[in-house]
């Protein structure tokens, strides 16, 4: 079994644990041994979540050189910081595991990056390229010939139409849709239920149907 540690303890992280358990239940021999969680909230240290212990802060990844890792941190409030959060751990990219739920349909003609998570009933069509550290939440569809940049979060029920390019460190809200052959720049937020009918400039938040510019995405950290 591969020893694996989940970064974070939020809802996505619990879904990742559930997916790991499902992968194990579908294998004649268990694939993974989930060693624990790492989380910067000191109040969580030492606690158990569904039988898995919170081992310490993100920086303590150095204490587990034989483990693999998967990241569940990322929300509409910090999605543009996801690369910095992961970088703080010092974990090399080849130590991140790609996790795919057994119910997901992933074309063998697609390419999925390291550290990427694909949850229940996701469809990844042919000739799709998904970068590193992407998370795709349940029931989303990434159509043919599309690409998803590193660190992006595709939430539940999203539809990315064919030939679409989604940039790095984006967040696509629940049930949003993006028209085919459209480009969404880096660090963009697509609001819940929004319908994107044209290109979206880098560092923009758009909402509505059709989606319209709301504000810039600004890193105030």
Q: How confident overall, as mean pLDDT?
A: 96
How large a portion of the residues is in β-strands, by DSSP E?
25-35%
CATH architectural arrangement of the largest domain: 3 Solenoid
CATH C-level category of the largest domain? Mainly Beta
How are the strands of the largest sheet arranged? 6-9-12-15-18-21-23-24
Summarize the structure.
By secondary structure, the protein is mainly β. The chain is built from two helices and 24 strands.
What are the SSEs and their pairings?
Blueprint: E1 2-7, H1 11-25, E2 32-38, E3 48-49, E4 52-56, E5 68-71, H2 82-87, E6 99-100, E7 105-106, E8 111-112, E9 117-118, E10 123-124, E11 129-130, E12 135-136, E13 141-142, E14 147-148, E15 153-154, E16 159-160, E17 165-166, E18 171-172, E19 177-178, E20 183-184, E21 189-190, E22 195-196, E23 204-207, E24 212-216
Parallel strand pairs: 1-2, 1-5, 2-4, 6-9, 7-10, 8-11, 9-12, 10-13, 11-14, 12-15, 13-16, 14-17, 15-18, 16-19, 17-20, 18-21, 19-22, 21-23
Antiparallel strand pairs: 3-4, 23-24
Give structural notes.
The protein is mainly beta and 221 residues long. 10% of the residues lie in helices and 30% in strands. The chain has helices spanning 11-25, 82-87, and strands at residues 2-7, 32-38, 48-49, 52-56, 68-71, 99-100, 105-106, 111-112, 117-118, 123-124, 129-130, 135-136, 141-142, 147-148, 153-154, 159-160, 165-166, 171-172, 177-178, 183-184, 189-190, 195-196, 204-207, 212-216. The strands form four sheets. It has an eight-stranded mixed sheet, covered by helices on one side. A six-stranded parallel sheet has the order 7-10-13-16-19-22, with no helix packed on it. The longest helix is centred in the first third of the chain and has 15 residues, at 11-25. The protein is globular and about 45 Å long. The N and C termini lie far apart (39 Å). The model has no long low-confidence stretch (mean pLDDT 96).
